[in-house]
Design a protein that fits this description.
The protein is an alpha/beta fold. It contains 7 helices and 7 strands. The protein has helices spanning 7-18, 51-59, 66-69, 101-116, 136-148, 164-180, 199-207; strands at 21-27, 40-45, 77-82, 86-90, 121-129, 152-157, 189-190. Strands 1-3-4-2-5-6-7 form a 7-stranded mixed beta sheet, sandwiched between helices. Helix 1 crosses helix 7. Bound molecules: guanosine-5'-diphosphate.
């Protein structure tokens, strides 16, 4: 299902992200979490899905999500303030073969604790590389979100890298996954950070959560 946004909605998205965004803090353990204030959204996805690029494209701040990719911060929840109106959380990229079992376990506990205990967390955006579709590591994240009763929404990334027919195919497969997951929101966003495709619509979607 695709969706069209009205001029007003697009404008609300533009205004939300038109102001300054800044890094607040990185959190590696539950007792470090900042208080849950106002509307919070989170971004999740496999490593290299294009999460930093998308956060940069949304906020217009090129350096913003770089913090999340610097060594030592890759296993942290990174909190950003968007225009003093919303909190954006960059969740660490998953699917890294490098992590040890113990590390993965510890991380899952932190993620679970965060996802279950966050009253302001309004929606998680699960990024899917449009070239690859949903992988088994994504399914693990979806299961965690389902169990935590966090509403989530799929965002396809890097659609400039595929042909229109391939986009139709991956959209259909993601929409089939939506049907299997009750916590998944039916609208799937298709984006390219490189070409700025779908960014205004995703901003509008996010502004609608306020
Ligand atoms: P992250 O690990 O999920 O934060 O991914 P990055 O944002 O660092 O992106 C991973 C790679 O994909 C980088 O080489 C980016 O340049 C590339 N990339 C990200 N978004 C796009 C996009 O929309 N189009 C194309 N062609 N490449 C992209």
């Amino acid at each position: 299902m695709s969706v069209e946004f009205t001029e007003d909605q697009i404008d609300a998205g533009r205004r939300l992200f038109g102001g300054p965004s800044r890094f607040i803090m990185g959190v590696a353990a539950l007792d470090q979490l900042p208080p849950s204030e106002g509307v919070e959204i989170a971004f999740a996805g496999r490593s290299n899905v294009g999460k930093s690029s998308l956060i940069n494209a949304l906020t217009g701040v090129n350096e913003l999500a770089r913090a999340s990719n610097t060594p030592g911060r890759t296993r942290e929840l990174n909190f950003f303030n968007v225009n003093e109106r919303m909190t954006l959380v960059d969740m660490p990229g998953y699917g890294y073969a490098k992590a040890s079992k113990a590390e993965i376990k510890r991380w899952q506990a932190v993620l679970k604790g965060y996802l279950r205990g966050r009253p302001g967390l309004t929606r998680a955006f699960v990024l899917i590389d449009s070239r690859h579709g949903i992988k088994s590591t994504d399914e693990e994240m979806l299961q965690l979100l389902d169990e935590s009763a966090v509403a989530y929404q799929f965002v396809l990334t890097k659609i400039d890298k595929i042909k229109p027919a391939e986009l139709e195919e991956v959209l259909a497969s993601v929409q089939a996954a939506v049907k299997k997951h009750p916590a998944a929101f039916p609208v799937v966003h298709a984006t390219s950070s490189g070409k700025a495709t779908g960014i205004a619509e995703l901003r509008a979607e996010i502004a609608g959560l306020l």
